[in-house]
Specification:
Blueprint: H1 4-23, H2 32-36, H3 51-60, H4 66-75, H5 79-83, E1 90-91, E2 96-99, E3 110-113, H6 116-129, H7 150-163, H8 171-183, H9 188-195, H10 200-204, H11 209-223
Antiparallel strand pairs: 1-2, 2-3
């Protein structure tokens, strides 16, 4: 048994294959996958790490994993972006990290500001890995393979098991960071730019529209004066 999203990936590949076959006149008739459609999948899955869970996870993590988890929670960076982060992408003078377009999911360069907390973390990390061009290294002192992050996933799984956070995925650290920004007053545009979302609808999933609507009309109420 596999998840519906896995089935849909294969159906999409098959649909494209049949589309090309028809285009090249190797197949005739209607595309059966287009006719049947895809399976229904679960909507946005958002597992948010509580602050207590964060402390337990970091305490249970190996020394080379801890700064990666902390950076993920302080930047909302994707796993692939973290594993390919180079020291030349970190600008300590102007306090921002550059996510290069070749490693960005949206294929667009973006900049993430460096907070004071993150700056201290990265400066400490540079003392450990400054001899390398890469910010994060494996326990063996070599760069991670972004195309095969199994080394990191193994130690992350070990930390999850130690803390009984079996439903936690590494990507949930990104969800956690985005949610914390949204819930603590960051604008939707700021969260969108930091996360590198191509569609603002993705960012909107971290915000509570009812709350923002109420705050909006409260602003109007505070501005307008209708006292007799």
């Amino acid at each position: 048994e596999v998840k519906a999203i896995t089935v849909n990936r294969e159906l999409q590949a098959l649909r494209h294959l049949l589309y090309l076959a028809k285009k090249w006149k190797k197949f005739f008739g209607d595309n059966p996958v287009s006719e049947s459609g895809l399976l229904k999948t679960e909507s946005f899955r958002k597992r948010i790490l509580s602050y207590n869970e964060e402390v337990k996870l970091i305490d249970a993590s190996s020394d080379h994993l801890k700064p990666i988890i902390k950076t993920a929670l302080l930047t909302a960076m994707r796993l692939g972006e973290l594993l390919t982060l180079r020291w030349q992408d970190v600008d300590f003078d102007n306090n921002f990290i550059t996510i290069r377009e070749e490693i960005s999911k949206s294929k667009k360069t973006r900049r993430i500001p460096i907070s004071n907390t993150l700056k201290i973390l990265l400066l400490e990390q540079k003392l450990k890995t400054g001899h390398s061009g890469m910010v994060f290294l494996t326990h063996e002192g070599v760069p991670y393979s972004p195309k095969n992050p199994s080394a990191l996933k193994r130690c992350f799984t070990t930390a999850r098991k130690k803390t009984n956070l079996l439903d936690l995925r590494f990507h949930d650290l990104r969800h956690t960071a985005a949610t914390r920004m949204a819930e603590n007053g960051a604008s939707i545009i700021a969260v969108k730019e930091i996360c590198g979302h191509s569609d603002i609808k993705t960012t909107m999933q971290y915000f509570h529209p009812d709350k923002s609507l109420k705050e909006a009309v409260e602003i109007l109420g505070n501005i307008g004066k209708y006292d007799d």
